[in-house]
Amino acid sequence: MIKNYLKIAFRSFGRHKLFTLINIVGLSIGISAALVIYLIVHYDFTFDKFHKDEDRIYRVVSDFSFQGQQSHTSGVCGPLAGAIKSQATGVEFTAPIFTLSPDVFIAGKKNGPTRFKAQNRVILADQQYFKIFNYVWLAGSSAHALDAPNHVVLTSERAKLYFPSLTYDQIIGKVVTYDTLKTTVSGIVQTIKENTDLSFHDFISYSTGTVNKDLGGQLQLTEWESTNSASEVFIKLFPKTAPNNVQKQLNAILKKSSQPHPELSGSTHGFRLQTMDDIHFNADYGVFDFSSTASKTTLYGLLVIAAFLLLLGCINFVNLTTAQAAQRAKEIGIRKTMGSSRRQLIVQFLSETFIVTLLAVLISVMLAPFILKLFADFIPKDIKVDFAQPSLILFLLGLTVVVSMASGFYPAIMLSSYKPVLVLKNQASSKSSKTRNAWLRKSLTVTQFIIAQFFIMATVLVSKQIYYALHKDLGFKKDAIIVIDSPWKNRTLAHNQVLANKLRALPQIEMISMGSAAPSSGSMNSTFGLYKDGKKEIKTDVEIKTGDQNYIKIYQIKLLAGRNIQITDTARAIIINNTYAKILGFSNPADAIGKRLEKLNNDKNITIVGVVADFHERSLHSPINPLAILYAKGTYQTSTFHIALKPETVGGNEWKTAIAAMGRDWKSVYPDDDFDYHFYDETIAKFYDSERHTSTLLTWATGLSIFISCLGLLGLAIYTTNLRTKEIGVRKVLGATVTQIVTLLSTELVLLILLAFIIVSPIAWWAMNKWMENYSDRTTISWWIFALSGGGMLMAAVITSSFQTVKAAIANPVRSLRSE
Q1: Among 655, 642, 619, CA closest to 481
Q2: Long-range contacts: 213-217, Cβ < 8 Å, 24+?
Q3: CA distance 430 to 420
Q4: Tens digits of per-residue pLDDT, 409-463?
Q5: Beta carbons of 559 and 610 less than 8 angstroms apart
Q6: In 578-723, where do the E strands start and end?
Q7: Taking the CB of residue 509, how many other CB atoms lie within 10 A of it?
Q8: Phi, psi at residue 741, to the nearest 5°?
Q9: pLDDT in tens, 341-371
Q10: pTM for the complete prediction?
């Protein structure tokens, strides 16, 4: 029986080669997209799912509120972990960690120690960390390896990197130096192979901070008023403990331990317990420098794209199969007459669909590695097609069954329902069945055009917003500026001054400023500002920038009133932006000049000497906030070099020469640190990496949806023209022109596209508005986006169908009528 099913199926494929090819290609595209998207989504949704008792593990995070402005961080106060251990109930284990980025030195025999620069997966941790998160111990004591100061536990991967020729047991007792801190290896654990954000590889005993002055100062173990993002706490609750009760205890401990600050009335600070499955997806709290959060919205959007592309392939299959129904009617009638049951016919047609789907899945599996390589720039490198994963095999099997049923169930039911008496009299399409099938094909075709046009509209809008963000006047100059951060470990004010003097001597450099972050950057430094106008107090959270007198000149920030900051200014002379001036009650910027702030940045009686025009401190997602610019003094206020380059001559390489000279000057001042620079306009562009990735994915989805839709359209056009061959011949004999015949054959298509356009436009407009709500400053949803989509889809469809309609219209009518 199965052999007969296969024989009949392949005979059918041979008779309808083109339609079979269209079905396989359409399904292959949809299944390829689904497979790649599954790999991406599965990768992100499996992060940290392997921990034992994962539902009882939480990270303690901090929430702040000031004057209605919310901020969040994964960091906590230094003393919190100790307070939880001694004062909170319901907590089984408490594990404080502190992230470091030290240079690692391993003693060598001949050429001195081996150096591993800026290792960013090094933490301070205690033994309870390994009680919360389960590791396989390869050497050392699993119970006491981190009890004593100056001990370190390494992962197996890191141990082999540091000591490649030694066994794990031989590595125990070896010395590893972190910057200047010498530690002794006391344990080795198996490197985690599963997806995790906690991919640390060096665990220094937390108690080291109690004997090392530098680390102790960073840990701030007695400072309840300070929150450091490097200081985090994980806890594991006892079974059946309510997280809300523990959270209330932590906030009560904070309230009891913190000192009241009357000037900060209206502000709040609290702790929240963050579940493990939220860490990888919550950008408010983030993860670690070596990892990044994923967006559930983006992942769900990818699933929708995969579903749409699969749906398009299935629609093609249903349309083309039902369109060919009349050609197989006699086969069905004869088989029923010979004794075939309806169940057997359904199995036959479903088996044909299954074979087509299986071929499409095999093609998709072969294409997947190339697709992943195509999107390698923004897909995690760990994502790959790995058939060792049972989940991937199950997904492919399930996808094959689901697509086979979705594509083949209705055609199988419809084809098997033909009555032998009617089909053998050439009446298979009589009465209502032809009408039902035609309306089904039209409805499915409209659905295809709706999906394709939605993708076109979304792609154009995202591209328009990206263009708007990159070309909008942000309130400062961003071209021909290089930004260099001095090394945070080795920087000194004297070294920075020496380097600045060397750079000023380069002929290609127009101007240099020393200060903190650029006008718009990913980092933020804010403080509390207090102004009294005699009647009321105005408390505001104020962002701080520092720079010298060249800072606003390099970035061409417009001065609205007053003067620039000067080298003779103390910390009590500032420039503010126009937004802050308006908040203080000055509609005219000049009125703010000479006014004094009661407090700002821990200083009192601050004089406003200038007001600058507003500029965007971050991406267009964020609103413009109150801001103050102070004169840069001290090592960390002058940590960044802002360098304006002279214009290049046509065909010249002055900038390349300048960068090479900067590198040599850098090495003469900071010989142990890498020279790292970036053009400022590239930094601005990186704000919109997510949008560009979205645009790339939408562009591909749009192209594929149009391609699949046009494939199906071509198949239907071939079927329709073949069905109406004699009609076309009669019309030509009666005097119809080629244009009239093409118009006749294309009119229905045009009407279907217009109907799809009418349906999709309000849906797309609503979706666009929801997406644009993420931006504080955004472009408009222009009418031409919809016109371009409708017109583009119409043109693509007409061009596709014209290959067949024009061919049919210009054919010699004698050939089509000679059998009559």
Answers
A1: 642
A2: 215/98, 215/124, 215/181
A3: 13
A4: 877 777 777 666 555 555 555 444 445 556 777 788 888 889 889 988 988 988 8
A5: yes
A6: 596-600, 603-612, 627-631, 640-645, 677-679
A7: 17
A8: -70, -45
A9: 777 777 777 888 888 889 999 999 998 888 8
A10: 0.81
